[in-house]
Amino acid sequence: MRKPRTPTPAQQRGLAQRLGSALERDVPLAARTSFQIGGPAAFYFEARTPEALATAVRVARDLGVDYFLLGRGANILIGDRGYAGLVIANHAQAIDIHGTCVTAASGALVYPDLIDAAVEHGLSGLEHYVGIPSTVGGALWQNLHFLSPAPERERTMFIGEVLESAELLTADNERRRVDVDYFEFGYDQSVLHSRDDIVLSATFELEPAPAETLTRIMEENLRWRAERHPPLDSEPSAGSIFRKIEGIGAGRLIDECGLKGLACGDAQISPRHANIIVNNGNAQAADVCALIMHAQRTVQAATGYWLTPEISFIGDFAPVTRLPADARGSTDRTATS
Ligand SMILES: NC(=O)C1=CN([C@@H]2O[C@H](COP(=O)(O)OP(=O)(O)OC[C@H]3O[C@@H](n4cnc5c(N)ncnc54)[C@H](OP(=O)(O)O)[C@@H]3O)[C@@H](O)[C@H]2O)C=CC1
Ligand SMILES: C=C(O[C@H]1[C@H](O)[C@@H](CO)O[C@H](OP(=O)(O)OP(=O)(O)OC[C@H]2O[C@@H](n3ccc(=O)[nH]c3=O)[C@H](O)[C@@H]2O)[C@@H]1NC(C)=O)C(=O)O
């Protein structure tokens, strides 16, 4: 992503006129991400309805202001120097249930809000994603996934499997309802990666199921995650840092290179799962980037595989921290920028 530009004085006046008193300045973003890392948003707007979300995006586009749509902030690393443009935080959270159809505004949290609402109504299809931090919009962006229920766990299930339709603000600023095929879903992939469409709301078609079945799946999945992943509340992270390497595993490669536990400042490759970097207190984005680059170089030198980041890098980044000499090894002679 290119570095966001500071809005010109004319653009700033336009934002203030059209977004009114809800427009905020210099808003800290770290606490709004699951990593708890990143500098402030120069301009910040919290959208509480799909209409407000569409309006804010249109305003930014009309004025030519760089903007970023912030969901739960669970799959991003925000630079230490923050975001110079407009951050639109999606807090549109309404959820409606009619029969087996569940419609959610795109800022609704998949867990707990959406899953709890579906399960309370005895509806199955979303319970697999329990414990994963994400808004509905973020979930469609990345085609949220998890392993199928125990004991089989023989395949990955995707949220696209239960999506019926969604309302978008298209890249052309039109509100349009689209069906599931529009999204061209894949693993960690959707058409939203290549089109500037914004999800305003989504409708899921679920199936009735006994409450005990839903509760069992949720408990087992939470246990599976707790055994393998560092807990988000005490060890903030952005989930998997690198994309899946089919049949091999990004986490396994990093682990086999002996990088678990490696730290740079307060950022650390999780001793529990090598594809997750945790923030042990006051980690900077520059520390995380140093670990990312080191893991890429080390794994490539040892195995020939190149690790591609799965997270998005948002905003303005300070120079990468230099790793301690004893951590660098022979593969990392150029870890500064
Ligand atoms: N499986 C796991 O264990 C984990 C999975 N995750 C994944 O991370 C994602 C986290 O979601 P979330 O925290 O809400 O997202 P984020 O706030 O982290 O934003 C991530 C990206 O999602 C896009 N996005 C967010 N909302 C919308 C929307 N309404 N319409 C279009 N695009 C949108 C934005 O893309 P753009 O920049 O193009 O606008 C943004 O870059 C989920 O997909 C989840 O699957 C995260 C942690 C763990
Ligand atoms: C956490 C995320 O998604 C998770 C998702 O929750 C789970 C369950 O469906 O499957 C994936 O994890 P994963 O642990 O299987 O992914 P990888 O990091 O590629 O690991 C693959 C395999 O390597 C092995 N592994 C992993 C970590 C480690 O330290 N050592 C190790 O040996 C494990 O056997 C593991 O199963 C998703 N990660 C990716 C990159 O595809 C996320 O997207 O943020």
Structure description:
The protein has 337 residues and is an alpha+beta fold. It has 3 domains: 9-90, Uridine Diphospho-n-acetylenolpyruvylglucosamine Reductase, domain 2 (2-Layer Sandwich), CATH 3.30.43; 95-227, Uridine Diphospho-n-acetylenolpyruvylglucosamine Reductase, domain 3 (2-Layer Sandwich), CATH 3.30.465.10; 237-328, Alpha-Beta Complex (Uridine Diphospho-n-acetylenolpyruvylglucosamine Reductase, domain 1), CATH 3.90.78.10. The protein contains 8 helices and 19 strands. It has helices at 9-19, 50-63, 110-120, 136-142, 211-228, 250-256, 285-303, 325-328, and strands at residues 24-28, 40-47, 67-70, 76-78, 83-90, 95-98, 101-105, 123-124, 145-147, 156-158, 163-169, 175-179, 198-205, 207-208, 237-240, 263-264, 267-269, 276-279, 312-314. The strands form 6 sheets. Strands 6-7-13-11-12 form a 5-stranded antiparallel β-sheet. Helix 1 (9-19) runs antiparallel to helix 2 (50-63). The longest helix has 19 residues, at 285-303. The protein is globular, with a radius of gyration of 20 Å. The protein starts with 8 loop residues before the first helix and ends in a 9-residue tail after the last helix. The model is unreliable at 330-337 (pLDDT under 50). The protein binds NADPH dihydro-nicotinamide-adenine-dinucleotide phosphate and uridine-diphosphate-2(N-acetylglucosaminyl) butyric acid.
